[in-house]
TrEMBL record:
The gene is murA. SUPFAM superfamilies: EPT/RTPC-like (SSF55205). The lineage of its organism: Bacteria. It is an enzyme of class 2 (transferase). It comes from candidate division NPL-UPA2 bacterium Unc8. It comes from the Bacteria. Pathway: Cell wall biogenesis; peptidoglycan biosynthesis. This is UDP-N-acetylglucosamine 1-carboxyvinyltransferase. Cell wall formation. Adds enolpyruvyl to UDP-N-acetylglucosamine.
Amino acid sequence: MDKIIISGGNRLKGSVKISGAKNSALPIMAATLLTRGSSVIKNIPNLKDVTTMSYLLVALGANIIISGDEITIKCDKIKRSFIHHDLVRKMRASVCLLGPLLARFGKVEISHPGGCVIGPRPIDLHLKGLEKLGAQIEMKHGYIIAKSEDGLRGNEIYLGGPLGSTVLGTANVMMAATLARGETIIEGAACEPEIADLAAFLNAMGAKIIGAGTHILRIEGVEELGGAEHTIIPDRIEAGTYLIAVAISGGDTLLKGARHEHLTAVIDRLEEAGVKIERAPDGLKVKRKNELKAVNVIALPYPGFPTDMQAQMMSLMSIAKGTSIVADMVYPDRFIHVGELLRMGANIVRQGPRATIIGVEKLGGAQVTASDLRASAALILAGLAADGETEVSRVYHLDRGYEKIEEKLSSLGAKIKRVTDKPSGKKKK
Ligand code: EPU
């Protein structure tokens, strides 16, 4: 298995291009199932999750052509609507095939995704929304079987849950509602930019969705959708991760393509911490010269601070002057990275959904293990600022969500490399 080795201490300089958003690309690829027409999606990131989604669509019968960062998908010969547990386990986002398959074919059988390392991840809201559209849903042997023999019908649906709105739940219900009879109103919808991007793609296919990017969506069902061309938005979480890479290492960098309007909560916290961020004609300029100050952060649904940036922010706060509190109200159990940051000399105490971080002068390089995608990134960021060498193992998660991270960071001046881990008998100190 690969590991990433970082020698900390280098400032980052130059420019880096932000790739297309993973969390837009995945539901948009799933949405191509809603039509027999051919769709062309541009600015697709080269990531393992995108490969898994392509593989899934091909297994269902789709025809896919990939050329650079452009993908053409045609779903005119879909032969099955069954998704095996192995695929759902590999990539939880496969759950967003549920809505489109149900709407177009009237039946779908998909493995329940269950929980994962960032905590329990129920899909009750997805199912509630689809039931409100008239689907009959039953659970058998870990599989969800959803049917809509008489077609779906528009309805008023409240999709908020105890922890706020649901991103993929909103995606599923919105996609299904595009082909339902009559009007659907989704209240408590997720307003993440990835949902607005999906709605833009669906509208280009002929759907009638208004309100995307707000908590209320109105969807007028249509008879059928056609193929469309669409360019995926830049990945705000990748951009945020590079903002922190520069903040933690010091330096001066341009993030090409990064959008200020998608990152306001992250930028607000970073500016408060002493990082300079400016709009540039083609992205964002980030600079950090002075000492970092501790700031408090609460991860909330958009437009709040993203849970997908919580771990990276904690790495930054580990070396900030003062005490900060980092809380996660979206995934209250997403704190496995705390133990690994402690190995690097951070001073963090976790209590339930929040952690108190007392900034230390310096982190020290150590052998650490990545538990999930964003935790992997957080450990790399910590390694950039640490004294000596940091070895991050189990980095396969990284390739799910960060395109060529070690190449991009190297191009900015970081000392980072990927090596294939051979069993050596060497134990963790
Ligand atoms: N929730 C429910 N019931 C549901 C669905 C969600 O209670 O039916 C709860 C969840 O347990 C969680 C909260 O609602 O506490 C929000 O979950 P959400 O459904 O919004 O998460 P998701 O749609 O499964 C997407 C991203 C995640 C990101 C979250 C939150 C994709 C493919 N995944 O997941 O991204 O953390 O939204 O913003 O879009 C990542 O990229 O590393 C990642 C984990």
